[in-house]
Amino acid sequence: MTRPDVTVIVAVYNTMPYLTECLNSLVGQSIGTDRLEIVAVDDGSTDDSGSELDRFAQRYPDTVKVFHQTNSGGPAAPSNRALEAATGRYVYFIGSDDYLGEEALERLVACADKHESDVVVGKMVGTNGRYVHQALYKESAPDVDLFASALPFTLANTKLFRRDLVERHKLRFPEDMPVGSDQPFTIEACVRARKISVLADYTYYYAVKRGDSSNITYRADHLARLRCTARIMHHAAELIEAGPRRDTLFERHFTWELAKLVQGDFLALDRHTQHRVCSGIAELADKYLTEPLRDSLPVQRRVRLALAQKGTVDELVRAIGMEEPGGTLPFLLEGDQADGGRAFARYPGFREPLLNIPDRVFEVLDESVAAQLAAGTELVDADWVQNGDDLALDVSVRTAFTGVTSSVVVRLLPGNFPKGANKAGGRRLPAGGELPPLVGEFTRTENTNGTVVRALIPIEARTASLAVRVHAEVAGSVYEIPVPARDAPMPLARRWRSTVPYRVAARVNGQGRMVVVTGPLFPPPSKLWPRVRSRLGRLKRKTLR
Description:
By secondary structure, the protein is of the alpha+beta class. 32% of the residues lie in helices and 26% in strands. It contains 16 helices and 25 strands. Strands 16, 17, 18, 21, 22, 23, 24 and 25 form an eight-stranded antiparallel β-sheet that branches. A hairpin with a 5-residue loop joins strand 24 and strand 25. The protein is globular, with a radius of gyration of 30 Å.
């Protein structure tokens, strides 16, 4: 029998009916079954997965090999057993609930042969709500560096590996890791590879989130994920000496695996488990979280990891709660924000002498905090103020800022507001960005949780849709923060100007934000008639139904 070009390894445990689509995608590959070997290991399935594998083995006896074993508790042991049986020049791993694009293996093998690559990564997408990091797939590249690319955020073993590389370095999966066992294998393969290639020109791999979220990654608890992350990091530390290269790799683990241990679901853990999670994070942070690496993290993750490192569970719980729905995170501004001023997220622990956490942990560095600022913004009150023919909006908005708040103002932006708004709330603009706002006079009242900005903004006699936004300069960046007004009463529409009367109204738009709409009380006939005609047309269509 001719040696196959590629062996596809499938570790299987209770993945029906997804398994059928997975296997069909393999035997239907354009590379052809004569160049393909499939080695599937049934890890003690209790559904119909084992019989489905046997059905494919009977149908494709020269291509599909099936092994059955008692359940091992994870994909590592069946993957290792399949590796022992593999004969292909390359090996490729696929989850038994996922599937491949039809040309995937042919393209991957061709790339590896052309560029003499030891590892080839094909574009991977998520389905049914499965998240897959996409930064690595911006463009194809024949030679990428593990430490100078987004590869550290794509460490699953769903790649093509040269089998000579695997066997030469005796790469295997740690069988005592229920989750994440593919990362030590992938990291070492990439560290030892002569060349790593990326293909972004085709969708090679479809990662499926099962309808019941029963993927093993979603089932693992906090402590299991913590133990596995520690194993991954310790293994990587043995391969890569301390310094910028290791920091680049560990940025992934601090921003992803460890940060995810201290998000919203941390609040539901019992206090003993919370302390154990913090203790485990502290051990890894003490050993591997260097100052340059810490500075590269977003302020939210920096603070949560620092509080966990200190073992201050109460403060950590309060910090997480600040960013849960309904929470508010205040920011302290110091100095001129447009000229080197500093901004700090005032999480619990900020400048508390007993904790002695450096200010740098809480500082807004080169990052966007638009979503946090938006969460701390709300409408307090709004009304019209008329003086003769002049009209102004009298509006009070609570903001998340304290300290030097002179640059924090409320203004009206016309409907031609530049594209690029952040739907999560707020928008980060280059400092000094030119916008055509309507700006008025301001008074500010500060307390420990923020500042209420009261603005008296003149309304111009023109047809316009005006967004009410808080304008703020924070650590060298300019933000335009929408003012939410879902539950606030809007002032009644008002007519103003006597010679050519205008009408002004305030309303809440589809995003729950306050907008002001102005226009002539009596539109000219050239503009009125199309509106009348449109309404008559709708009425006629409704009558015909």
